[in-house]
Amino acid sequence: MPGYKGHIIGAAVCNAAYVGVLAVAPPTILDNTHNLLSNEQLLAGLFVVAILFGLFPDIDTNSKGQNIFYGLALTADILLILDGRIEAAAYLGLLAMAPIVGKHRGWTHSKLAMILIPSPIFLIPYLNNSALIDTALLFYGAAVVGYFSHLLFDGMIWKRIRIKGG
Question: Cβ atoms within 10 A of the Cβ of 115, count?
Fold first, then answer.
């Protein structure tokens, strides 16, 4: 089981593969993919989201990953509040609190959580502003890829794969 550094590297590598697949995908799949590599802000956002969700399953324990995740979540929450996006700040706060309900390697380390926990990323725009759905799906994909990397390197996807160190 890797430490926070291993999970950050794993999420970044898995997200690089995700971005690579998107970059060569036909533009009809998602409108934003045809210029993905030239949009530095979008790329940076995808990597930040993947890394955050690569750390997410372990934020139920006192760890460096927890400190990083909550530090970034707090910063994002403050920025959302200052920008007047109170509803988005509330959703982020709710998401950030969810892991403390349960034990370590409990529900946060499940394949179902990998799909469901990031779902507000696309569900909220889908319900409120369909013009954002393509971008929301890109970020949802990055979140799932980051989460997947965590489960993969913890040996929760294939039991024979377990990365040690940290």
Answer: 14
